[in-house]
Known about the structure:
Helix content is 53%, strand content 18%. The protein contains two helices and six strands; from the N terminus they run ααββββββ. Strand 4 and strand 5 (156-159) form a beta hairpin. The chain folds into two domains: 15-109, Alpha-Beta Complex (Hemagglutinin Ectodomain, Chain B), CATH 3.90.20; 112-170, Nucleotide Exchange Factor Grpe, Chain A, domain 2 (Roll), CATH 2.30.22.
Amino acid sequence: MTSHDIDDTNPQAPHEIESDLERAQRESEEWKDLAARRLADLENMRRRTTLEKQELHLRASEHIITKMLPVLDDLHAAVEAAATTSDSQALRTGIEMIYAKACQIFDEAGVKVVEAEPGQPFNVEFHESLMHAPSEEHPEGHIVAPVMRGYQLHDRVLRHAKVITSAGLPAHTESGS
């Protein structure tokens, strides 16, 4: 008997083959449906996670902004007062108070100033050198002067301190006759 011949001794064979084929097709459809549902669940979870991240970011921003609103109000009042007063000492005192309030809010949030004092070694992790300048006071690779303050949030640098670094001793030229 060849593979193309039908087994006449078992009249149920073609029916059993059709039944097995139908069952396999049904199982295949069930697996396809399950895979499609799982894929949809995964896409929904990704979408939900993205929305939750955006919401978390918005809430964090809202929190710090809400804390900074009194500082903005105080600055507004200081600008209005500056237009009507000639008492520069009172104005200065008011601005110092506003500055102290802002510093306190940032400190409570974990924001710190990056140290960048003259004579301190330059550190690429915390400082950005804007230029090198000859210096008799500070050795090469040390800070000559800070230009702009840097800030970090806990251990993460938000903005590098911008500094001028020492290029070492100035070159001396000798004059010929």
